[in-house]
Design brief:
There is one protein chain. The protein has one domain: Multidrug-efflux Transporter Regulator, Chain: A, Domain 2 (Orthogonal Bundle), CATH 1.10.1660.10. It is 61% helix and 3% strand. The protein contains six helices and two strands. It has a two-stranded antiparallel ribbon with strand order 1-2. The longest helix is centred in the last third of the chain and has 32 residues. The protein is elongated and about 65 Å long. The protein starts with a helix and ends in a 5-residue tail after the last helix. Keywords: DNA-binding, Transcription, Transcription regulation.
């Protein structure tokens, strides 16, 4: 079964641009070409793209995806590095969650600077943003 890039995009939910980008980044192997020079993808492309997209929904970087694909392509190798990669990714997510909690606190403090509608010139939020007092 060979399909064109538009159908691959439809089947996976990716955009055509995303598929081309993953090819350029060498995450997806180059597809065959039709006589009309259309890209033709097979089931292996479909499965690999689904794997990549799933990793991306988990907010993995392209380098992380690349590493995971290397192990996926060599099923007889030890997957210890995969475990390390995932542990590091979990740590990064936890750090980002802490940063987002701090960001929320700053935004809530900023929101308290203006409790009602007023003229923009007297808006406490705008004044706080101008003098950076929401971070003090």
């Amino acid at each position: 079964m060979l399909i064109k890039i538009g159908e691959l995009a439809t089947r996976t939910g990716a955009t055509v641009e995303t598929i081309r980008y993953y090819e350029k980044e060498r995450l997806l192997p180059k597809p065959a070409r039709s006589q009309g020079n259309y890209r033709l993808y097979n089931e292996a492309h479909f499965e690999r793209l689904q794997f990549i997209l799933h990793c991306r929904t988990l907010d993995m970087t392209l380098d992380e995806v690349r590493t995971l694909l290397q192990y996926r392509d060599k099923p007889d190798e030890n997957c210890g590095e995969v475990n390390v990669l995932l542990d590091e990714h979990i740590d990064a997510v936890e750090t980002r969650m802490e940063e987002l909690i701090q960001l929320k606190q700053h935004l809530l403090a900023l929101r308290q600077k203006c409790a009602s509608e007023a003229l923009a010139e007297s808006c406490g939020i705008l004044h706080a943003l101008a003098d950076n007092s929401c971070h003090r």
